[in-house]
């Protein structure tokens, strides 16, 4: 397991080991003991999500769940290729409003750990791209929230207009958004 810090403290890129042979490969996509030995202590996960997006340029985000159902997410790509993004929305954080992005693909096997207190979103870079992510809290529609994808200065690398949900089209701009999160220092 290889761990790489990003420019946002707490957001980490993980690359699990792959064992290739004539059949293909084997990889432990999640192993708490291995991660803890490498120094990353993550909260308990209670829900796994899986979605597929048909078209290149499908953009889902930027999403969060507010406390008391805030979610940390461990994200990977099951098929295809996507650009995954986290934005710090913890009030008082030295990196409030800053973003990091990482390309996650079936080929590279990378994962992104996004703690609670960050927006999450992604755009697909191949047709039929699948994303799979573990969450630290259950889905709570009443706590569900979104910020406009184009209000955080993110370079999505888009070559076409994104395919969006209705909810994501009408989300507020980051500048008009009153975040429910407060900075409490860097945490897993
Ligand atoms: C997120 C979620 C949605 N749903 C339902 C609600 C709705 O009918 C349908 C589609 O929901 P959405 O449009 O919110 O799906 P989507 O736009 O893919 O939302 C997801 O985007 C990424 C970026 C995230 O980080 C996730 O947490 C989640 O917000 O699935 C669940 O049943 N459980 C869940 O955990």
TrEMBL record:
Q: What class does this enzyme belong to in the EC scheme?
A: isomerase
Tell me its EC number(s), please: 5.1.3.13
Q: Which reaction does it catalyse?
A: dTDP-4-dehydro-6-deoxy-alpha-D-glucose = dTDP-4-dehydro-beta-L-rhamnose
Signal sequence extent: none
Has the keyword Signal been applied to this entry? no
Binding partners and assembly: Homodimer.
- One Pfam match, by short name? dTDP_sugar_isom
- Biological processes, Gene Ontology terms: dTDP-rhamnose biosynthetic process; polysaccharide biosynthetic process
Q: Could you list the residue ranges forming a coiled coil in this record?
A: none
Q: Which residues form the active site?
A: 63 (proton acceptor), 133 (proton donor)
Name of the gene this protein is made from: rfbC
GO molecular function annotation: dTDP-4-dehydrorhamnose 3,5-epimerase activity
**Which parts of the sequence are marked as the site Participates in a stacking interaction with the thymidine ring of dTDP-4-oxo-6-deoxyglucose?**
139
Database matches in CDD domains: cupin_RmlC
Give the stretches traversing the membrane. none
Q: Report the source organism.
A: Thalassovita autumnalis
Show the GO cellular component annotation of the record.
Answer: cytosol
Name the Gene3D superfamilies for this protein: Jelly Rolls
Write the record's keywords in alphabetical order, separated by commas.
Answer: Isomerase
Specify the protein name.
Answer: dTDP-4-dehydrorhamnose 3,5-epimerase
Q: What does this protein do, in the record's words? A: Catalyzes the epimerization of the C3' and C5'positions of dTDP-6-deoxy-D-xylo-4-hexulose, forming dTDP-6-deoxy-L-lyxo-4-hexulose.
The organism sits in which domain of life? Bacteria
